């Protein structure tokens, strides 16, 4: 079988889950449709941008009006863009289209219908949370989903959230992004070592996470936190550390290549991630960093947020607190900082769970089998 992978940006090095589908789905028999070009074509695939061109013709205006009425969106390829994408799909002859995010599925719904190509949508986070705050996107999802052949999500939480907004499909299932458990493996751990990996943005509450850690570090001589990532809250987090006089207890690395993150996770005992729902409604799906940490034998301290409780079983492979519960988060950090044996045990349990439920080869096989059945 051959799949056309539809995504927002290609090539996006940080989107390991998308790139894995492009490179490995159906033995790599894939082509790629995207909106925004970035970083070339390192996966050496047949590619095409669906971006609309600047043109004003009666035909395009008429097509836009029809699509808006039928599919509830004006972001669909029209005019010359429609012709280019139609030609690309006709030449590539995919057996199906896998849209990696909800908006990509919406954008390709009319073309898939016109060409008779089964279309599937994956939901991963913002597209089933923040996007639902927009009446226009809600309308488009509700109008388009009956035309899709199936829906995938990285967590049951996202499927439930879509259903709560009147968006559901009889063929829906959870298949997490997964992790390469051969690459992410535990090594000798440094006791009382902590790690954060991700964008320093509102929905990950890195400032709250850092304040909680700094309080524990005042009474725990060995506790050390490494913060990997950048973002709008980077300077805030640096300032908090400086104000506490603990620059020697927190290391800020900025963004790091995947292999360096892998090495850090192998040697670090505990992952910290205080995920919350952002003011604009944006949530996680199931953070890749948590799946990678579990595979690396790390205990996880996080929140009861989105799909996280589906992976982190409280008291077994990690500790969970309510969103914005800084006191509870601080207590959880203190508990594992002062009990390295418990952190080790939780890390071992997390590794077992990752191998059983989040190994990406098994999940890729599940995806291939489901796509073949549902198309």
Kindly give the count of domains: 2
User: Portion of residues in helices?
Assistant: 40-55%
Shape, principal axes of CA atoms: elongated
Q: In terms of per-residue confidence, which ranges show pLDDT below 50 for 5 or more consecutive residues?
A: none
> What name does the CATH topology of the largest domain carry?
Rossmann fold
CATH top-level class of the largest domain: Alpha Beta
Report the portion of residues in β strands.
Answer: 15-25%
Count of helices? 14
The sequence of SSEs as H and E is EHEEHHEHEHEHEEHEHEHEHEHEHHH
Distance, first to last CA = 11 Å
Q: How is the largest sheet built, in terms of strand order?
A: 3-2-1-4-5-6-7
Number of strands: 13
Mean pLDDT metric: 95
Please tell me how large the radius of gyration is.
Answer: 22 Å
CATH architecture of the largest domain: 3-Layer(aba) Sandwich
Walkthrough of the structure:
With 375 residues, this protein is an alpha/beta fold. It has 2 domains: 3-178 and 359-374, Glycogen Phosphorylase B (Rossmann fold, 3-Layer(aba) Sandwich); 190-357, Rossmann fold (3-Layer(aba) Sandwich). Helices cover 42% and strands 18% of the residues. It is built from 14 helices and 13 strands. The protein has helices at 16-24, 58-71, 80-92, 102-115, 135-144, 156-164, 206-217, 234-243, 258-267, 288-295, 308-311, 326-337, 340-357, 360-374, and strands spanning 3-10, 30-37, 47-49, 96-99, 119-123, 150-153, 172-174, 190-197, 224-228, 250-254, 268-272, 299-303, 318-321. It has a 7-stranded parallel β-sheet. Strands 10-9-8-11-12-13 form a 6-stranded parallel β-sheet, sandwiched between helices. Helix 7 packs parallel to helix 8 (234-243). The protein is elongated and about 70 Å long. The N and C termini lie close together (11 Å). The mean pLDDT is 95.
